[in-house]
Write a structure and sequence with these properties.
This protein has about 475 residues and is of the alpha/beta class. The protein is built from 19 helices and 16 strands.
């Protein structure tokens, strides 16, 4: 290990040990020389087994291109507020926002790299009052295809699982692109109907009510009897197709009023007749409906019969728009990067910090579906490099109003290190960490306790770094 790196570690390792954030440092060979307990907890890998070993031995799924630490070491790249996702030693998906910088000695040679991170799952747990009681388990950021760490979304997922097991009819409300069909599939998959021996015996049938001409609705839903009209053949409708399973009526607010009464009878009595026939057929199915308007809006506009609404919303879930769960944007963007990276030849491995800030600044009127489209388009237009540098929002967001991007988790250290000794750089990291702790805790005693240093020592360090205290700090 470089002597300057060793000297700096001897000075600052005690402070790093006490930090509530993951901190890791590698040397010029890519071996871990520092790895605090917070890193060990999140990565599910003992610190004593990591130190002295190559980073890529600890994370075999990574390579030199996908590791920001190795990119900082080998190419001098700097990352501030960057998003990274990886699989830890227990197979759990970890998402972090981090700052990663190369470490230079007095001669300007790169002797290592440091990374200070913030675990998104842990950060989301305390985002709102009372959120800790409903915060998602760290293993549950992607359940049933729904990618989210938002506490309110996690509550909705659990409610959907409970409603799914109960087997009741459910009405899903939410803006276009929020993922209503994913919740409908979750409801079906959580039910006993999905436990049949074969998918053909427990079908999930989808009807987009906005895509069917009004004249074809009855025959599409209920089927036809031979001779019901010119050219009519004996044909079953979607209600029979969905027998023993689930019928998902998307865009319910486009369902013709004339059809709603006949559908109501199916929900009440489980009986219906094909168009042109008097023969009654029993239907054993569950109906899940979705609408991009609220119940009140649909009733006020007479788009939905009140009696049909009351039959459908035994269970009712309102899915929030993406702008109300902005913490999910990095998570979703990374998921779509992995899903669509093939359009760029698999070359793009991460999203640049500036591009991520651009994503977080958008209000996303088209919600998750729009975000996926934008990510796919941006990957297509990404001509070179292993980072997605530019986001092509396009005309579909022409009405998008700017939204303040979230604050960086750490102070911006961009440009630091050039011409500075290693000790000066580490001193800068110490200042950054102290500022972060002072923002989180008003009490100097609490900050000193978390740093495992006496209060007098903390006061000395604050004075040394010219850190101005808020008047509330005591």
């Amino acid at each position: 290990m470089d002597t300057e790196l060793a000297s700096a570690l001897a000075i600052f390792s005690q402070l790093f040990d006490a930090m509530p954030q993951p901190v890791a440092i590698i040397d010029s060979e890519g071996n871990y020389v520092y790895y605090n307990q917070e890193s060990a907890k999140i990565d599910a890998y003992p610190a004593e087994r990591a130190v002295g070993h190559p980073l890529l031995d600890i994370y075999p799924a990574m390579d030199a291109e996908s590791s920001t630490l190795l990119q900082a070491l080998h190419h001098g790249k700097r990352y501030t507020g960057a998003f990274q996702a990886f699989i830890n030693a227990q197979g759990r998906l970890v998402q972090q926002i981090h700052t990663t910088l190369p470490l230079l000695n007095r001669r300007g040679a790169v002797v290592g790299a440091v990374e200070i991170a913030r675990d998104l799952a842990a950060a989301g747990a305390g985002a709102n009052d009372g959120a800790s009681a409903i915060a998602p388990n760290k293993q549950e950021t992607c359940r049933h295809g729904i990618v989210s760490q938002d506490p309110a979304m996690q509550v909705l997922i659990r409610q959907a699982e409970a409603l799914g097991k109960a087997g009741v009819n459910v009405l899903l409300c939410g803006e276009t692109g929020t993922g209503k069909e994913l919740f409908a599939r979750l409801l079906h998959q959580s039910s006993q109907r999905a436990g049949a021996p074969s998918p053909s015996l427990s079908p999930f049938v989808v009807l987009n009510c906005a895509a069917i001409p009004e004249t074809l609705f009855e025959s599409t839903l209920f089927g036809t009897a031979r001779g019901a009209f010119t050219g009519a053949q004996e044909r079953q409708g979607l209600i029979e197709t969905a027998n023993s399973g689930t019928l998902f009526l998307d865009e319910l607010n486009s369902l013709p009023w004339s059809v709603q009464g006949k559908l109501l009878r199916v929900l009440q009595d489980g009986m219906f007749s094909r168009v042109g026939s008097n023969k009654e057929i029993r239907a054993d199915l569950r109906v899940i409906a979705a609408a991009n308007e609220t119940q009140q809006e649909m009733l006020a506009a007479r788009k939905l019969r009140p009696d049909l609404l009351y039959r459908l919303n035994i269970g009712q879930l309102s899915i929030p728009p993406l702008r109300e769960r902005r913490g999910d944007i990095p998570l979703l963007a990374e998921a779509f990067l992995q899903k669509h990276r093939g359009v760029a030849g698999g070359r793009v491995k991460r999203i640049a910090p500036a591009a991520m800030r651009q994503l977080q600044a958008c209000r996303w009127p088209g919600n998750v579906r729009m975000l996926e489209n934008v990510m796919q388009r941006s990957l297509i237009f990404c001509e070179t490099g292993d980072e997605l540098q530019a986001i092509w929002i396009g005309e579909d967001a022409a009405d998008t109003r700017p939204h303040d991007a979230p604050a960086e988790p750490l102070a911006d250290t961009q440009g630091q290190g050039s011409g500075l000794s290693l000790e000066e750089q580490m001193s800068s990291y110490e200042k950054t960490l102290l500022i972060g702790l002072l923002k989180e805790h008003a009490s100097l005693s609490e900050v000193a306790r978390r740093c495992a240093i006496p209060r007098a020592t903390l006061q000395y360090k604050l004075k040394k770094h010219n850190i101005t205290l808020h008047r509330s700090a005591s």
